[in-house]
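The protein record quoted in full:
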Amino acid sequence: YFVSEEGESGWTQTFGEDGHIITATSGDDDTDNDFANFENIDISGYKFADLNGNGAWDEGELGLSGWTIYLDTDTDSTNGGIVATALTDAEGKYQFLNLGPDTLNSGTTYYIYEQQQNGWTQTFDGSASFAIESGVDLSGAFGLAEDFNFGNQLIEGPGVRTPGFWQNPTNGGTFWDGIIGNEAHSGPTFPDGELLGYNDADGDGPGTTLIANPYILLGDDDGDGQITAADTGPFLTISLTDALKFIGSNGAPKGDMSWNLARDAIATQLNFLAGNPSGDPSDPTSPEAYLDQAILWLSTYDKNDDGTLTIGELGSHKASSKEWQKGIDTDGNVSNGYEILAGATIHTALDQYNNDGSIDSTFFAFDGDFASDQQLQYMNMLQAASI
């Protein structure tokens, strides 16, 4: 005779899988024909939009869809230990269902954590570790900031844009041509109107007349076109005509690098004016600190010291030049180091910020050119909640 068990949904047989053969003998009991089963478990939780960034799941804050959650043997998604991944659904819920010893090993510690996304700050980390136990489901509850749930806040602003966006006269160029009301785009991932409105001679009214000498003011923190007590760093004026040539590299000397820095600085200023975070200027690794360095670097070529840089003054600087590779010495004593950073160093930082919002893997803003569904979803929630 053969003794076996009938399997049931949601259970994994862990002993007696091959069944037991019994030979009937008069008067002899046949014992130890045992079977063992593990009741499979489910793991679930939520990803929520922390609109006010307080680390709690408050009323009105909803789930975020499309985020990847890892089930892993450690907390490193790059070393091959991932067991499974799940995407959050329309309510922000993720699930790993019907897990048993055929998937997870008894005695092994497993980890649940979320994949980070560019342009977001994690405000609640519900990462958790566990070892499987028969019949013990693991979950984070909707509406609570607890283990197995995750909260993130989108970095403020419409997202940074590249110099290529800003230089296009029918695209990003319409946001800083000085004309109020002709902007090519609207919406949460674009600036909220003209950025250099001080150049519009018509004011807020209709018209395309500019002031006599339109300009962009680098270092203008509040965007009013003048240096006031609200502006804390160095500043430099560039005419709108020259700024358009710089950002489009239109007429740059062959092999020149300094135009790249002017291009970086103009794009960075526009990204700040658009409402993207600039970081703490006292932090030398922040976008604002690097823009200050770019302004100081470029200002050393303001030959008549009038606070305005022209194309003719900037000249040409090769990649091999001391200013580009080492920096600029302003006190005449190189032994003290260079007071202004190397042009190459400043360029690398600002170019990265203008492209994806980061500097050295730290994100200060998100990338407006590639706004994700999650970012748009969050912005719509923010507008609906009026937080």
Q: What stands out?
A: Helices lie at 163-167, 240-247, 258-273, 287-299, 311-314, 322-325, 343-356, 373-385.
